[in-house]
Amino acid sequence: MAVDPLRTLLHGERAQLAARLDTHREGLRASLDGLSEIEARHQFVPSATTLLGILAHVTYGEQIWSVEAVLGTPRRELGLPPTAADPFDVPESLTIATALGAHAAAVERSDEILARRGLDDVVTGHRLGPLTVRWIMLHLVSEMAQHHGHADILREQVLALRRR
Fold it and tell me: How far apart are CA 85 and CA 66, in angstroms?
């Protein structure tokens, strides 16, 4: 369970960033609570964006910003698609359970990798070039927050369909 960010007001920067990040990660996973496989794949917008697709996308992001950017392992060696848009197109074989498991594993690995580096450490594995770990953590927080908001709206729409 994520630490309430309001409990970290007087903690260090890293604890504050981690609490914010974990809050959004947890919210993204919770967006699938109690939904059917069909509901998790329901498209409300012209793009391939679905609740399951959002979780696949942020799972991809966890790997890109830790394993690729920090450790320098290219995404093709990780078996990941070349662009961040690709994970939204989820295969039939991806279920809510497998997506949640993949996300949990990616988050655990990401946290382990990032914890071994200081916030001011510079890493060079991403195609953007040199980045600080602080920048990566801030980027992850903003990405997770954005997609958490998307997921909240999509979940609300799914639940509204049930009332019809």
Answer: 18
